[in-house]
């Protein structure tokens, strides 16, 4: 098995729902009564499973997180990069805001516009994450 790390940079992601976001790479954004968080994770072989979280930033409709996450992988052919966004309510349960799941074997080097999907699997029309992928 080859050790093939993947690096992921969250560069930005506007919302189209008027609320705040959270993901499975986890990212945080604070705006009035809500905190936006992103959670990024790898799903696959037990040795490759991992979750990372971003720091909180103020939401200005075009948030920029500039966070890097590194995921060393033993079997990249079976790994999925899962990104989940949630509206984090203070004192309540976090609300689902969007998600995407990308096969690591199909990721391409460089900047990519990544769509988000609702809980029914329908793509949001105006919501995308700008991400950069690096492989070592």
UniProtKB/TrEMBL annotation:
Question: What CDD domains does the record point to?
Answer: C2_PLC_like
Q: What region holds the C2 domain?
A: 1-118
A Pfam family of this chain: C2
Gene Ontology BP terms: phosphatidylinositol-mediated signaling; release of sequestered calcium ion into cytosol
* Cellular component annotations (GO), alphabetically ordered: plasma membrane
Check the record and name the InterPro entries matching this protein: C2_dom (IPR000008), C2_domain_sf (IPR035892), PI-PLC_fam (IPR001192)
Q: In Gene Ontology terms, what is one molecular function of this protein?
A: phosphatidylinositol-4,5-bisphosphate phospholipase C activity
Instruction: Tell me which stretches of the chain form a coiled coil.
Output: none
Highest taxon of source: Eukaryota
Name of the featured protein: Phosphoinositide phospholipase C 6-like
**Where does this protein come from, organism-wise?**
Trifolium medium
Q: What is the lineage of its organism?
A: Eukaryota, Viridiplantae, Streptophyta, Embryophyta, Tracheophyta
């Amino acid at each position: 098995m080859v050790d093939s790390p993947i690096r992921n940079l969250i560069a930005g992601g506007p919302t189209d729902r008027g609320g705040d976001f959270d993901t499975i790479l986890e990212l945080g954004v604070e705006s009035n009564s809500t905190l936006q968080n992103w959670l990024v994770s790898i799903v696959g072989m037990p040795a490759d499973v991992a979750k990372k979280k971003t720091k909180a930033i103020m939401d200005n409709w075009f948030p920029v997180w500039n966070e890097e996450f590194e995921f060393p992988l033993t079997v990249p052919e079976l790994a999925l990069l899962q990104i989940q966004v949630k509206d984090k309510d203070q004192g309540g349960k976090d609300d689902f805001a969007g998600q995407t799941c990308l096969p690591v074997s199909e990721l391409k080097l460089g900047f990519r516009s990544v769509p988000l999907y609702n809980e029914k699997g329908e793509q949001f029309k105006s919501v995308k994450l700008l991400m950069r992928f690096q492989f070592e």
